[in-house]
Amino acid sequence: MNLDDPGLGVGPGGGGGMSFLTTSRNTVLQWARKFSLFQYPFVTACCGMEYMSWMGPEHDPSRFGAEIPRFSPRQADVMFVVGTVNQRLAPVLRKIYEQMADPKWVVAFGVCASSGGFYDNYATVQGIDRVIPVDIYIPGCPPRPEQVHDALIRLQEKIGSETPVDRIRKYAELPEPEHTEEGV
Fold first, then answer.
1. pLDDT surpasses 50 at 32
2. Burial class (CB in 10 A: 0-12, 13-18, 19+), 142
3. Which of 1, 13, 35, 70 has its CA 20 to 30 A from that of 82?
């Protein structure tokens, strides 16, 4: 490999023919964010079994940098919404999302989180994107672990190509909750 190749971002250094690697701070931060995802599992229904299966040693999400689940929203940067969200739970979901540190991403795990599933009634939120912004949707009832791997890889690609302007625009466009219960 030729270290003086301009395509690598490497240039001649000072003294003795040494070379150095040049990159932007944003590129390093995106790389670190992409491969150190701390997830917050918001599990409400039957897809939780598939989520637990995916977290096990057979599927091993640690090879994608998403090994450690955090059960405090202040320590997480990816929220997996797993299962059905009803109208009474929607304000809680929104509050937990707002407690997460920026930058943050959301994955809708399964058809119930994505579109309400077969619960077409007044009590079920017909997709969590009506409450919080969603970055990746995983279809299926329940989704297969391979689909979750694919979604994680797509999320990493999205994080790698995201600019600070994209993040600012994303947080400025938070949806207003459709229904809020007083006292919740």
1. yes
2. buried
3. 35
Q: Cα 59 vs. chain centroid, distance in angstroms?
A: 18
Strand, helix or coil at 128? helix
Domain at 38-172: CATH code: 3.40.50.12280
pLDDT tens track for 65-102: 777 788 888 888 889 999 889 999 999 999 999 999 88
Task: Report yes or no: 132 and 97 within 8 Å, Cβ to Cβ.
Answer: yes
Encode 52-91 in three state secondary structure: HHHHCCCCCHHHHCCCCECCCHHHCCEEEEECCCECCCHH
Residue position matching structure tokens 């009474």: 88
Question: Residue ranges of the domains in the chain?
Answer: 38-172
- Tracing tokens 């057979």 back to the chain, one arrives at 58
Query: How far apart are alpha carbons 2 and 140 in whole angstroms?
Result: 47
pLDDT digits (tens, 9 = 90+) for 120-177: 888 888 888 889 999 999 988 888 888 888 888 898 888 888 776 776 776 666 666 5
